[in-house]
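Field reference: sequence -> structure
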Amino acid sequence: MTSNLTMKEKILVVDDDQGIQFFLGEVLRKKNYEVDSATSAEQALTKVRKEEYSLVLMDVRLPGMSGIEAIRKLKELDLAVPIIIMTAYGSKELAIQAVQEGAYDFFVKPIKLEEFLIILRRALEKRRLQLEVDKLEEDLKKKYEFENIVGTSGPMQEVFALVKKVAGTDSSVIIYGESGTGKELIAQAIHAHSPRRDKPFVKLNCVAIPEGLLESELFGHEKGSFTGAIAQKAGKFELANEGTIFLDEIGDMTLHTQAKILRVLQEKEFERVGGTKTIKVDVRVIAATNKNLQKAVEEKTFREDLFFRLNVVPVYLPPLREREGDISLLVEHFLKKAREKVKKDIRGISQDAMELLIGYSWPGNVRELENCMERAAVIAEGDLITKDCLPLYVTTQEDLKPFPCETNSNLDSTLATTERRLILEALEKTEGVQVKAAKLLGITERSLWHRIKKYNIKV
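Structure field:
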């Protein structure tokens, strides 16, 4: 529920004792609160469904539904509203149960007015602060998030502005960016803000499908058209009719398949593999690649005519290392996701850990950072992510890049040398504590022990 913080705060008093209702009503009105009343939990729930209250004062013993049961139902209707329970002398156990169910606090009758007003003010102040926090979070989300894509940096704001402009058109788009920069999210955002938003969004990773099956995936096939084609199958273009198709890693597509794609873009028609029936489609194409397609055109590995068909609106996604200021925001975003996924109440990240994350170059970009935060959340023993929860390559600021391959190199020996070095660094960092070293390396303690024996490492 939304609230206007400048309006007079309204309190609902729920008690079947008319004397208590009158007394509390007079006290609260003198303190400039608006007061409403109910004589049962059922009546109170009806009122809360119809209007918003700043606070609910409720007797624990009511005719019909009990105050305890009413707390649960009130919280389902409005999580933000604080509930203060009133209980008769000798019913303190019920009051404690009420707090466990979600009540803010309780006080015992007969009411001590000064104590009552202090509890009341604290509850209302907590609600005001919560509403302000909720509003700030909502404002930040609107300002810094675009369809789950987080970024405050200049380059990302330029991307968001371009996406909003192109989304309303039917132009072909190609998204350029390194692996892990979020190209698929941008494609989804374009579709979600387009006139085709209620139609299918179909995606295909061109490099994940073997070349012999790619044409069937794109255009479908007829029964018996090749070995294993036991039934007719619709392809991605057919499934995306009137919607959007996202072709990821299009730079890896062969020239033969590129020609087929070009025909669909030009003629808006195709035939299934092994079929003769021409199928008409109306599809918007969004492509993505981590390659330089202009260079590929020059090298004759990508069709120039297809390039110009796709490259109507190019969108360039910056790598994370060029998004100054975005890492801390992304860390908070991914920590929130990881908290829900691993079911841990992690409240934040230490300053030194954040500095390490900001200082790392992130060759795997946003995807690498997200995986790193999930791993850290899994490893964290307390409610704070510390530098000990981070992978070794982050704490040593060493990118996970491929080793240069020399003609006389041996893969097994290179991997063994690298593994031994990482284990030594982890043991040095943790002062020989193998449990901690194993956590840093992301392996079990038993696995680490075997490797220590294998490489004859003296701990």
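Note: The two ends are 59 Å apart (CA to CA).
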